[in-house]
Specification:
Layout (H helix, E strand, L loop, with lengths): L5 H16 L2 H8 L12 H16 L13 H32 L4 H13 L1 H4 L1 H8 L3 E5 L7 E6 L21 H14 L2 E6 L2 H10 L6 E7 L2 H7 L4 E3 L8 E3 L2 E6 L6 E5 L4 E6 L5 E7 L26 E7 L1 E4 L5 E6 L4
Parallel strand pairs: 1-9, 3-13, 4-7
Antiparallel strand pairs: 2-11, 4-8, 5-6, 6-7, 8-13, 9-12, 10-11
Length: about 350
């Protein structure tokens, strides 16, 4: 057998010895057992261990340490087949039991609050368009008024298990809320008065950027991170350093930011009288309303017993997160130009 640590070879040895004891009487007893009667754990960790045990049993086909105790290879193969089938049955039952526990368990408020807090904490660092609007004094923050209606920014549908203690893959929220921040960018760009231009290549984009300095007073330039960014910033028209906290380059003295987005190849914002306001409560801009998947309108409830609905299809396996922002953007003129590279359209 392959080399393994103490914590691995001891269970493997006992499993090998169990296979030796797994005679016809034991096989008949387990084959006639219902799922509930099988002597295996049904918790989440139990399901994982059952899967690992089956992998070890399958390896015994080629490398069984007690092979000398059997009269023939066929006897060993029969026992391996029977025990592997039993472990498969137990694993499937454990997964179904785990699924029903998740569907019936109330959502954990602490995990939901943690998701909401991290979403807001990373808003600045992960959405440089918003950071730029704040630093050029376009976007102001005020205390939330009770009568302020929220604007829907995004809806997400994470797995319910993420908000169930001991079932969550991690107790921390996802490290990447990119889709939410991309929805925010779209919200902002819909409310700004932007010219839209399509360019064919980097050289044309650079020429267009240069033309924005003819009496138009650009305040910040944002580039899409990715394949075009390096070719742009390698051009001699760009200089290292910038006036904004996250700008490492400037173009004709105007700070340049780059962020992962699909909404633009380049975005030039101009100085004008346009402005925006965000209403903040407890230092949080985004509010999140939680709706269990089975209560969300977007899901169609299958006409089946909940226990028989596959994991991928049941509304109960998801949580709807309605993400809103309280505030407004008021455009007072042409706010800038949004460029898209023809190859990106």
């Amino acid at each position: 057998m392959t080399a393994m640590g103490t914590n691995s070879w001891i269970p493997a040895f006992y499993l090998a010895f169990s296979l030796y004891l797994f005679d016809e009487d034991s096989q008949d007893s387990l084959s006639n057992s219902t799922d509930e009667e099988l002597p295996f754990p049904t918790g989440n960790k139990g399901a994982i261990k059952l899967n690992q045990l089956k992998d070890v049993v399958d390896e015994f086909r080629n490398d069984y340490p007690l092979n000398f105790l059997f009269d023939s290879q066929s006897d060993l193969d029969t026992r391996i087949d029977e025990l592997a089938d039993t472990l498969d049955q137990a694993h499937s039952h454990a997964k179904r039991q785990q699924l029903i526990r998740i569907r019936n368990h109330p959502l954990d408020q602490e995990l939901l609050n943690s998701w909401r807090e991290k979403l807001n904490e990373r808003f600045d660092s992960s959405c440089l368009l918003r950071q730029a609007l704040k630093e050029i004094d376009f976007l102001k923050q005020k205390r939330l008024r009770p009568d302020t209606d929220g604007i829907k920014i995004s809806k997400r549908y994470p797995r319910r298990r993420n908000f169930i203690p001991e079932e969550a893959v991690t107790k921390r929220p996802p490290s990447n809320f990119r889709e939410v921040y991309e929805d925010y960018r779209k919200y902002v760009l819909r409310r700004l008065n932007l010219e839209e231009k399509t360019v064919q290549d980097i050289d044309e984009l650079l020429t267009e950027l240069e033309s924005q300095f003819n009496g138009r007073n650009p305040s910040v330039i944002l580039f899409q991170a990715g394949k075009h960014r390096r070719r742009l910033l390698d051009h001699d028209r760009f200089e290292h350093g910038g006036d904004l906290s996250s700008s490492h380059y400037s173009f004709n003295g105007v700070p340049v930011l780059t962020e992962p987005t699909e909404t633009y190849t380049a975005l030039v914002l101009r100085e004008n009288e346009s402005h925006g306001v965000e209403f903040v409560e407890n230092e949080q801009v985004l509010t999140v309303t939680t709706i269990p998947g089975e209560e969300a309108d977007i899901f169609d409830m299958p006409d089946k017993a909940l226990e028989s609905v596959p994991f991928e299809n049941a509304p109960h396996d998801f949580v709807e997160l309605d993400i809103r922002l309280h505030g407004y953007i008021k455009s007072e003129g042409i706010d800038g130009v949004l460029f898209k590279m023809n190859s990106d359209i």
